[in-house]
UniProtKB/TrEMBL annotation:
PANTHER family the record matches: GUSTATORY RECEPTOR FOR BITTER TASTE 66A, INVERTEBRATE GUSTATORY RECEPTOR
Family classification: Belongs to the insect chemoreceptor superfamily. Gustatory receptor (GR) family.
Name of the protein in question: Gustatory receptor
Species: Drosophila madeirensis (Fruit fly)
Superkingdom as given in the UniProt entry: Eukaryota
UniProt keyword annotations, A-Z: Cell membrane, Membrane, Receptor, Transducer, Transmembrane, Transmembrane helix
């Protein structure tokens, strides 16, 4: 019975993580990102498969694809003349990047459709981890997760509306009714952002659980250090109490207190060990005895020191071994959850990183083309305005950088557990605890988790540095190709103009020759005598 009561109390005390995802779930469900059952989530806060949700999600995907193609056809008049007016390189880049947003959106939705059963199991494992941490007095607060989700949603709507409205007002001919289709251009990035909010918040929750384990180990170290300091201070106090040959020291600032309590002046107190004034707080001591009665007992027996510090768990290696083992097992489970999460979102992360790299490079390249008064693809007309370009690049790069940074910090938090565990062994300075720590450290070596994009590259700061260098390199190459293409086009135009001029000069010369021949013929005929 007590065990059942403790389990039920832990379940009631632990707040499910999915309870904070309600607003995000409803928006994602309406947008057609998640196929899970709406009623089950509303009543039980669980993610379960739903046939109706799957049909709705596929229908929304088909509608998005059709609307996006209609958008491309409606605004494609500029693209039809792009190949004739600009280089083939600009035309091919624009044609490929026009559909990369649609490919990214399709990857997100199809991946969510494939993993609809496994995502629910993932959050159930997180709930079980929270219960195990609660039993070890390691409580994880999920209340601020909802605020983080709301902040991300607000930033998403602000960026999407800013880019959409600024482009529509500045660069779209909104006098035509077909211009309303420009709203469809924001659908792929909006759906992708909602999907990545799920991944980012879940990843942040894992990082918090790693940090909770690390904080628990650090608290064990801090408590043991306080306990050791208390022991050292208690021993010094005991030695001073046993040495009664030294007279007590009095503070001159408390002269008024001495006079009030004992009716003595400082002169009678200095250098005298016979006259002592005991500070009185009330007429009864802490044991309920009168001061006069307890005064005799004080002279007869030495003072007894009371242990006011909490006993450290690290002082008993056999008792703390179970707790350290449980924390390491929970750490292993969190790492496995992180690996499963990375596997579920591996293709969407890869498509986002590819999209971010290509769009960032292409947007800067088309911005350069716009400054040179060159034609650019219709869906990239935002590059004609530097202010809109900055907003669009900040939005795209912000998603990529935040996911990379959060993955890197989560990996570091998982690896820091071994350091915190070794601190426990160092501060305890016990052979048995050293053996326990060394044994658990070997397990932690295999518990580290690293996040990657389908194994192509790891999501850490080194990758961010490499991507930044790659964008710079490819941008320079594209500008050089564009310059070469423009120079070649100018050379061809110059050559054609020279040919036209030469042909005109040749025609004029031939006309002069014909005219002179006719003149000679007429002159000869007129001067020849008849007869």
């Amino acid at each position: 019975m007590p065990q059942v009561q403790s389990e039920s109390s832990s379940e009631s005390a632990v707040q499910p993580l999915l309870q904070q995802f309600q607003l995000l779930f409803y928006i994602s469900k309406i947008a057609g990102i998640l196929p899970q059952d709406l009623e089950k989530f509303r009543t039980k806060n669980v993610l379960e498969k739903s046939r109706n949700g799957m049909v709705y999600m596929l229908a929304m995907l088909i509608v998005y694809v059709l609307l996006y193609n209609v958008l491309i056809y409606s605004f494609g008049e500029e693209d039809r003349t792009l190949k004739a007016s600009q280089s083939t390189l600009t035309f091919v880049i624009g044609l490929f990047l026009t559909y990369i947003g649609l490919i990214m959106m399709g990857t997100d939705q199809l991946t969510a459709l494939r993993n609809q059963g496994r995502i629910g199991e993932l959050y159930e494992r997180i709930r079980q981890v929270d219960e195990r941490l609660y039993k070890e007095k390691c409580v994880v607060d999920n209340s601020h997760i909802g605020g983080r989700i709301r902040f991300m949603l607000i930033m998403t709507f602000l960026f999407e509306l800013s880019i959409l409205l600024a482009t529509y007002i500045k660069l779209v001919d909104y006098s035509q009714w077909m211009s309303v289709l420009w709203i469809v251009s924001a659908i792929p990035t909006f759906i992708n952002t909602l999907d990545k909010i799920w991944f980012a918040v879940s990843l942040y929750a894992l990082k918090e659980r790693f940090e909770a384990i690390n904080q628990t180990l650090e608290e064990l170290v801090a408590t043991h250090e306080k306990f050791k300091r208390w022991l050292c201070g208690d021993q010094e106090t005991s030695s001073r109490a046993l040495d009664s040959s030294q007279p007590p020291e009095y503070d001159s600032n408390l002269e008024y207190l001495y006079k009030e309590l004992g009716g003595l002046d400082m002169g009678s107190l200095k250098g005298s060990g016979r006259n002592k004034v005991a500070p009185v707080s009330h007429s009864m001591n802490s044991f309920g005895e009168s001061i006069e009665a307890s005064d005799k007992a004080t002279h007869q027996a030495p003072p007894i020191s009371v242990n006011m510090a909490h006993e450290s768990e690290l002082s008993n290696a056999s008792k703390v071994e179970e707790k350290l083992n449980n924390l390491c097992q929970v750490h292993d489970e969190i790492c496995e959850i992180g690996k499963a999460m990375n596997e579920l979102w591996s293709y969407p992360i890869l498509s986002l990183m590819a999209y971010g790299f290509l769009i960032f490079t292409a947007q800067l390249y088309f911005l350069y083309c716009a400054t040179q008064f060159q034609s650019i693809p219709s869906l990239f007309r935002s590059a004609k305005n530097p202010f809109i370009t900055v907003i669009a690049l900040s939005y795209t790069s912000g998603k990529c950088v935040y996911l990379i940074y959060l993955s890197w910090k989560t990996s570091l938090a998982s690896k820091r557990t071994g350091i915190s565990l070794h601190k426990c062994g160092v501060v305890a300075d016990d052979n048995l605890l050293f053996e326990i720590v060394n044994h658990l450290s070997l397990k932690l070596l295999n518990h580290s988790v690293d996040f990657s994009a389908c194994g192509f590259f790891t999501l850490d700061m080194e990758t961010l540095y490499g991507v930044s260098g790659g964008i710079t390199s490819y941008l320079i190459i594209l500008i050089q190709f564009n310059l070469a293409a423009q120079q070649a086009k100018e050379a061809i135009q110059t050559f054609n103009s020279l040919n036209d001029t030469a042909s005109l000069v040749g025609a004029a010369t031939e006309m002069d020759n014909v005219s002179s021949t006719l003149y000679d013929l007429v002159t000869t005929t007129m001067l020849t005598p008849t007869g």
